[in-house]
Amino acid sequence: MQHPTITRRKLLQAGSVGMLGLGMNHLPHLQAASTARSARSVIFIFLSGGLAQHESFDLKPDAPDAIRGEFKPIATATTGIQICEHLPRLAERSNQWAIIRSLTHPSNDHSAGHHIMLTGRSAVPPGFNASKPLPTDHPSIASLATGVLAPRNNLPPAIVLPDRIVHNTGRILPGQFAGAMGNRYEPWFLESSAFEPKAYGAYPEYEFDHQERVYTPKRRSFTLPNLSLPEGLAPAQLMDRLGLLERLDRQRENLNQTADTFDRHHQAAVSLLTSGRVRRAFDLDQVDSRTKERYGDNAFGWSLLMARQLVEAGVSLVQVNLGNNETWDTHGNAFPHLREKLLPPLDRCLSALLDDLRDSGMLDRTMIVMAGEFGRTPRLSTLTQHYKGPGRDHWGGVQSVWLAGGGIKGGNVIGASDRNGGYPTREPQTPENLAATIFHGLGIAPTTNWHDAEGRPHALYHGEPIAKLF
Q1: Residues 269 and 314 in one domain
Q2: CA–CA separation, 338 vs 86, rounded Å?
Q3: Is residue 23, in this structure, part of any structural domain at all?
Q4: Domain finish residue from 281, 316, 345
Q5: Rg of the chain over CA atoms, in angstroms?
Q6: Residue 15 in 3-state DSSP?
Q7: Strand, helix or coil at 223?
Q8: CA 467 to CA 452: how far, in whole Å?
Q9: Phi, psi of 43 (to 5 degrees)
Q10: Does residue 21 sit in the same domain as residue 151?
Q11: Same domain assignment for residues 172 and 318
Q12: Residues 225-271: pLDDT tens digits?
């Protein structure tokens, strides 16, 4: 089917994009471009709140009690590599993944940490406001991908799911947006997960509250975008209506640049409607129950399952916010919550994603990167006014980053932290190097520039891809 080329005015005359069954909150800022590129993709899993390295990929079993924690290390399929006992599926697949145990940056603040890790820039920009995003912020990695990559199969180059990262107070975390690139390069936020300020984790099965306050669970599923045609409007009828609009509006060709930008957004919306393959990428209802069970029939599983389908459909970069509301911010009650609520669904869905990409032949050209805004403090602490049990506080000094696919050499550990898990002792890595590794995984040349809202060029790479990963 040939997708029609239509203008903003034509869609408005037809009753706006709403007549097509779409809401603008589901289709913001789609771009069109004609340049071709190789089919290389990245799934960037972001653990808002900060995963504790001591309770995941860098345990310190010989450290003092106040540092060691409750969890024990287990052997993986790779000699010499141990990870947390509550990640047994990933342990079995260690020949497919690598760990960086030495990524470091200077901030212990949530807002600055999000900005640093989501943009790949260790220093926040002048005028940075921890309370809200600003147009002077550095552009996010997802926005940079949107700006420099061409769309494939009528899909935007970058999609973020299942929600924006929002604090429980309703404050939107900076670093997720286009910032200095300008609004036209905002990534597409596929907001499928309702905001619930009192709940964390992989609902419905693993939903919890960090402080164990009483609340009533509300979320049972994702609310997916309506990418279907309105009832009674078949694709052929849509084409007829668009053809009529073309004839009626043939003389209206002198649109300004802003209108042209909207035209491309709406053309992409029509393309989504008229392509069955594209619509299926957003549809989890068509997924068989066995596959859902492998990933976990919960928000973590749904997120990575949708990410896999979007990569298969042609999206270059899918950022998956695996748990909103700083889900991984384990200041207290850390051990029961990690053991019972957080690590089991993570272990399950990430292992299923690895298996599916491997079995489909896509793993070699799809890089998976998992990180948070920082790690956690070496020393345990208890904030008795809020939590019954101990946890760890914010720590930019070091964190563990997990990677697989896209040429990553499995069974591989990069760098090391000290005996207490507080600072790098070997091969320290920066957010700039991690971002460069992601751009490398997308097939973007190191000489690539992006342009700010005033058209000024800026270098894309501010570090080097981490060579020992490959």
Answers
A1: no
A2: 9
A3: yes
A4: 281
A5: 22
A6: coil
A7: coil
A8: 29
A9: -110, 110
A10: no
A11: yes
A12: 655 545 554 555 555 555 555 554 554 554 444 444 455 555 555 55
DSSP 437: H
Looking at the structure, tell me whether residues 124 and 9 fall in a common domain.
no
pLDDT tens-digit profile of 16-32?
333 333 433 433 333 33
Give the mean model confidence (pLDDT) for residues 354-365. 97
Rounded Cα distance, 14 and 16, in Å: 6
Helix 110-119 × helix 431-441 angle, to 10° = 40
459: which 2 tokens? 């270098």
The phi-psi region of residue 142 (left if phi > 0; otherwise alpha if psi is between -120 and 50; otherwise beta) is alpha
Residue type, 179: G
Q: What is the pLDDT of residue 22?
A: 40
In a domain, 231, yes or no: no
Domains in the chain, number = 2
Residue-by-residue DSSP string for 294-363 = HH-SSHHHHHHHHHHHHHHHT-SEEEEE-STTTTT--SSSHHHHIIIIIHHHHHHHHHHHHHHHHHTT-G
- Looking only at the bridges linking them, the beta strands covering 416-417 and 424-426 are antiparallel
Whole-angstrom distance, CA of residue 319 vs CA of residue 195:
18
**Long-range contacts, 252-259 (Cβ 8 Å, 24+):** 252/7, 252/9, 255/7, 255/8, 255/9, 259/7, 259/8, 259/9
The average pLDDT across 4-17 equals 40
In 3D space, the residue among 52, 88, 82 whose CA is nearest the CA of residue 69 turns out to be 52
Q: What is the CA angle 78-84-89, rounded to 5?
A: 65
Q: Which domain holds residue 20?
A: 1-30+238-281
Does residue 311 register a pLDDT over 80? Answer: yes
For residue 91, what is the enclosing H or E element? helix 88-92
The enclosing domain of 372 has a CATH number of: 3.40.720.10
Whether residues 270 and 298 fall in one domain? no
Question: Can you list the positions of beta strands (E) in 14-89?
Answer: 41-47, 73-75, 82-84
More confident residue, 191 or 279: 191
In this structure, the answer to whether residues 247 and 160 fall within a common structural domain is no
Give the up-direction half-sphere exposure of residue 113: CA atoms within 13 A in the CB hemisphere: 27
Say if 230 falls within a structural domain: no
Residue 114, SS3 per DSSP: helix
Instruction: Pick the closest to residue 290 from 224, 352, 204, 338 (CA basis).
Output: 352
What predicted TM-score, i.e. pTM, was given to this entire model? 0.85
For residue 459, the SS3 value is: strand
Report percent pLDDT > 90 for the chain.
76
* 233 part of a folded domain: no
Tell me if 363 sits within 8 A of 204, measured CB to CB. no
Angle formed at CA 153 by CA 346 and CA 457, multiple of 5 degrees: 85
Task: Say whether both 24 and 122 belong to one domain.
Answer: no
Same domain as 429, residue 295: yes
Mean pLDDT of 413-424: 98
